[in-house]
Amino acid sequence: MFEPIILAQILWTGIATAAPFVLLTVGFALTLKVTGLWNFAQSGQMAIAFYTMFYALNGLGLPLFAAVALGVVFTAGAAYLIEVCGLQVLRDRQSGNLTFFIFTLILSEFIIYVITLVFGTEPETLYRSILSPIDIVGGIAISDWDKTGIGMTAIGLIALYVFMRYSKEGQFLTAVADNARLAELYGISARRAYRVVAIVAALFIVAAMYLIGSHGWIVPNSPLELVLSAVIGTLLGGIGRVFAAAWASIFLALIQSFSILFIGSRWQNLLLYGFLFATIILFPRGVRMPRFRWAR
Amino acid sequence: MDYPITIAISIAIYTILAASYNLVLGYGGLSTVAHPIFFAVGAYTAGLMAVDFPEIPAFVNVIAGMGTAVVVSVLLAGSSLRVSGDYLLIASLGFQLGLLQLIKNLEFTGGPGGLSAIPSTLVGPMRGPAFLAICGAAAVACVFVVRAIVNGPYGRAISAMRDEELAFTALGRNAMSMKIAIFAIGCGMAGGAGGLYAYYFQYVSPDQFDVLASAAILTMVVLGGMGTVYGPVVGAVLLLAIPQAITFLQLPPSIMAPMQGIIFTLLVLAFLFLRPAGILGTKGRPI
Amino acid sequence: MTRTPFLPRRSLLASTAALLAAPSIVRAQGKEPLKIGSALPLTGSQAGYGNDFATGWRQAVADVNAAGGILGRQIELITLDTQAEPQLGINAANRFIGVEKLPMFYTAWSAVVKAQAPIANREKVLMINDGANSPEIATLGDYVYTAFPLAEVDITKLARYVFTTLGKKTAAVLYINNDTGIDAAKLYRDTFIAAGGKIVAFEAYDPKATEFTGMLLKTRAANPEIVHVHGLTADTPQVIAQMRQLGMTQRITSYSAAYNPKLVQQLGPAAEGIIVTSLAPGVNDNPNVGKFLDRWKAEQGRVPNGLPYVQYQYDMVYLTKALYEYVDKKGQVATGDTLREALLTIGTFDLPMTGQMVLDGHRVNKPVYLLTVEKGAFVPLATL
Q1: Which chain A residue has the Cα nearest residue C232?
Q2: Can you list the domains of chain A with their CATH numbers?
Q3: Which residues make beta-bridge pairs with C205?
Q4: Residue C108: which of C142, C76, C74, C83 has the closest Cα?
Q5: Cβ contact C370:C381 at 8 Å
Q6: What is the reported pTM?
Q7: Where does chain C hold its CATH 3.40.50.2300 domain(s)?
Q8: Which helix (H) or strand (E) is A142 found in, with range?
Q9: A 95-114 residues with CB below 8 A of B?
Q10: Which ipTM was obtained for this model?
Q11: Predicted confidence band of residue B215 (pLDDT cuts 50, 70, 90)
Q12: Which residue in A265, A267, A270, A273 has the most chain C C-beta atoms within 10 A of its own C-beta, making it the best mutation to test that interface?
């Protein structure tokens, strides 16, 4: 069981399977960094992304790029609306953390119920077949899906890095993340930054849902679970550190994958939650989180 | 006859859950979502003791359920109440889900299939009404305990701690021990509700204590009015009675289930924006 | 619940004579509908099955009503949604008993059955399982019976078949970590070992898992001759797909949940050779089944999800008819006790879609039909 080939296979498939979760974590962590908000409404956006693409591919029979484009439009649109009509309103009222939590969680549930009404609750996949062509390279099974996933994630991370570092918009995001009030003094609109990050996160969500939906089944409630893994990765990586969160996601996925060598597969989830709990306890960020000054 | 009684008993049990959660969240300001896990701990403890030690009287098992819930809550509190706000939120979520996974993977709890065949304590046609009386009394007691805590001098201390912790500590009061105390009381009550649940329904399943249960209790508290004594009661009644009423409308089932969810989430969202203090809350009270 | 009316013997004889003499009067009087209750997941992740089950019920009710109903009364079908959740199952049971005043009801999905059992026993209402297969169901109480064979029927026969007829000496068991999987996996393992075989891998996976690489690699390393996968409709194709993608070419066995055209569609060529069990006769075994399928294709435009299960749902109406007729023949009122007694006394029922049902205490024994996937379609393999 410990032969190099097997370990290599676990490594490869572990990273490939982690790819969509890295994307989700990055979207979530980026939003947290810039807005200071644990945006559980993203699970609603995940549902919108998947079901839009699902309907486009299977209901309307559109080609892939059109389906993905539609997914982007609807998800980013929803994200924008949520930001402008929901989150900004709460910010203007100086609402507390708890209100934001309730709002984002309940909004996600609302979206999921509406989707349940429209699409029903049967498990669905984007394509009829969930098998993907395989190449055997050096004894390791590498599927097209693996390659797509890793490719998309790598491109997404690089693009994000370039965007944040070198583009005006990206730099504004960083400025707002560091200190929104100060950024305003320099003429950077925090509101605009929040909207931009909402759309950027939506892109990552669509990419992730495409990967997840073409590899396994989704029911309307699935995003509630998916957002949890984004939360865990974000926490482990550290608040405000988006790329660290991405690495944390991969690390967590690999821990789970390799744990199979020692424990039964049914304990893998417990390991994950145990990790989450231990992380928070062992890395106390002090009694209070720094309160972000909202720029109006 | 049993049907409305079962609904009433569920309302009573969820009133205890909502009121105790309100104590922790609304009054204590401790943003945890793990309340259902203490409900689970109480239910499983009472249920397991009833199954394995049938000689022990029921109320002892329910008390044991409360006790276990208190112990577990102190464990959670002691380790995680040092962090606050969003961190506590996530820590409690991780704790809840982790403990649920553990329950699902252990054999003696019945595993994922749940704990079934919990022996019946009361038999006969008066079983329903008797249970209703007991649960109703427990619910009333719980609400009054919360009211007593909140309206007394201890209550003022709690408000001070919640609203201005720094000043509170600076004045020499021990915020940590107060937080743990509130948490323990709230979770203990939830554990007691769990014990009652186990005895009435005679079946406990791990799936009924997950994130959706947290959201349901949270909804009850928010809708009714967080930080009011009777708000959670209103919330519990609404959230349990209305879906049952809707099922009598003879809507096709594929519409009914999501419709109930849509109605409730819309209500919460509307309240959140238009009347953030909830049905019974006073306007202008910040949350 | 319902009181047996107290009648002095003389008037009992007189009224019986009157009844026998004037059947048409009885017919005319007994016109209020006869309610039958079925608790099913009409929403939730199992709704794909649940709704098709409900359709099967409706078809049977329509057929029986067209032929005069039960004892001249038209059947009114009451389906309540359980979402396959215990709590909603409890609500449904209470509704059936408290609101609809039914003396018996039907239910499925192991967790729901287990949750409803205490209520049925307490209220002395007959509860019949028509789709769940957890072996625990046989021990849930005096008022809990099953018309559907429990796991020990098909799983044990399958395990023995694999060892003796297929000649596989080593096997792996991969199962979903819930009610359905745990009991069945243990049964398979124990039977296989008792027959003389060896279980080289025995792995449970989380119901919400989507990635099984580690578990499959462990299994691959153990080199089994055959693999038994015991999951639900959503995860089974994924486990099999990933198995094939990791280069495992062993033959795969599963149970009735895998007997599903969608599985073949999702897996394509990876589905070839899969062996599944069915607890209901197929088109070649029972002429009614062919007509049933044609009717489905005409009315719904497709074949039902879980065809064998739907056959059982259809037959439950006929089972109910037999029970009510027996109770009526004995001049009794239909209560949980009388219906239960009818069930035990009659013991053997000839049902249109599933053949003969022979009650064995709280169990039933049925032949097990094995099918396998050949060129993208399920074909019969053996009958055990």
Answers
A1: A123
A2: 4-127+136-282 (1.10.3470)
A3: C176
A4: C83
A5: yes
A6: 0.83
A7: 9-149+289-353, 152-278+368-383
A8: strand A140-143
A9: 95-99, 101-103, 105-107, 109-110, 112-114
A10: 0.81
A11: confident
A12: A265
